[in-house]
Every structure is written in structure tokens, then in C-alpha cells.
Amino acid sequence: MASGSWISQWANSIALLKTGVGCSANYSFASSVSCPSFSVWAHAHSEGGDNANVPVFPEDTKLRDGDLICRLGTAWYSQLISRRASSISGYSHVGIILHAGTDSCVVLHTEGDTGAAGQAGIAAEPLTSFLKHSRRAGVYRLALSDSVRARFIAAALAYRERAVPFDYAFDSDSDAELYCTEYVAVSLLKADTLLPLRPSFHIAGRTVFSPDDVLSLSGTACIAQTN
Q1: Which is more confidently placed, 103 or 32?
Q2: Among 109, 123, 144, 158, which has the minimal tally of Cβ within 10 Å of its Cβ?
Q3: Cα(108)–Cα(42) distance, rounded to whole angstroms?
């Protein structure tokens, strides 16, 4: 999709937010382990070139593959999204932790621009890079069995391997294209079709998944939040 079209569609979505209109299971994941990259401090957000420090988690934070990492982004529209679409958690974006406890720890997530991850659509972005574009962040653990967690990660990786594009239309009825929370939600539903996970946020005649829809699943626990 041409950048002009993307900008136009995103501007329309933001205008609506302002007004208030409304897989293989063979993946072997890491158990709870500390992630040393959480204690790394970095500088210079890409937006505006300011030298604010990256949000940092407590050094004893223990991650598992399949944990969710949510952030309130540094982009100008992030606050608008969090206020309208995430009244409980206050986040604007969500991704999936992979390779926990290693220097290769990444976040699987999808974006509609070519910013931090360097591409539109689903990317495996280094954790430190993901945090550089955050005002604050939190890690959440879903109450999933090991087998469901493995299927969840396998489904998320399968969507990435298929290079599923970003869903600019925010159409929750199809997985041919995926927006950020939809990517997490449909991967979860691929892993367990009985999960009580449905989109609840209404905008422009559509009902979309918000971070709150995922984080409100029974048994979900906050593992850590940034300083």
C-alpha cells in the first residue's frame, strides 16, 4: 500500500478516535528465565531525536516465551489509542515475547509503518528496540497450558512466515491481514478456539480487538512494569 494511502487512512482513524466514533505445535519454548537485556539502558528515541532513556524493567524480571509485552508508544497518536481503545491497561500496542532469556530476545508484533522494526507488517524486533519506542511497558503472562502456549507461538510464527500484511481496514473478521492486537488474538484462538476472546472496541462501524480484550482473559498476571 502506498504511503500516502496509509497516512490518509491512519489520519481518518485518528480523527475518529478524537471524536469517539465508534499451525504446528512443535515449537519448544523457554521456561521462566531472566532476560539480561532488560537491564540495558539506551538513548535517543528515533522520533524527534530526543535523548530520553528507554523504560527499564526490574533486573529480576523473569520472562517466558509467549508472554505478552504491551507498551504505550512514543508516537503522537499512541495516547489517543490508549485512551479510546485501552481504558483499563492504558497501552497502545502489544507483542509476543520470543527467545526469552537470551541475547536474541525479540518481540513478535505487527505495525502499519516502517518505523522501529524497519518494515510494515509482522516483524521479530529486538526487545531493546521495541522498548526504545515506549513511554512505558508491561509484561503479562496468560494462564495457558504448555501445549496451548506452544500452539500460540507456533501460530504467531506461521503468520510471520506467511508475511501477512498489516490490516489497515481493521477487519476483525478475516486473518488475511492483521492489525497489532488482532495478530495476538487470532494466534491465541488458533491455539485454543474455546478461549473467551472477542473484539469489543467499536470504531467506524467496526468492532476491533483492543489490548484490554486480551489482558482481561481469566488468570492473566502482570509480571513486571517499567520504571
Answers
A1: 103
A2: 158
A3: 21
Please return the burial class of 205, using the count of CB atoms within 10 Å of its CB with bins 0-12, 13-18 and 19+.
Answer: exposed
Sign of CA dihedral 83, 87, 89, 92: negative
* Mutual angle of helices 78-85 and 3-19, in 10-degree steps: 50
Residue with cell 521495541: 130
pLDDT at 86: 54
Nearest to 88, CA basis, from 222, 208, 216:
216
pLDDT in tens, 165-213: 999 898 999 999 999 999 999 999 999 999 999 998 887 788 989 888 9
Question: Contact 66/182 with Cβ under 8 angstroms?
Answer: no
Amino acid 103 reads D
CA gap 219, 217 in Å, rounded: 6
**pTM of the predicted structure, to 2 decimals:** 0.76
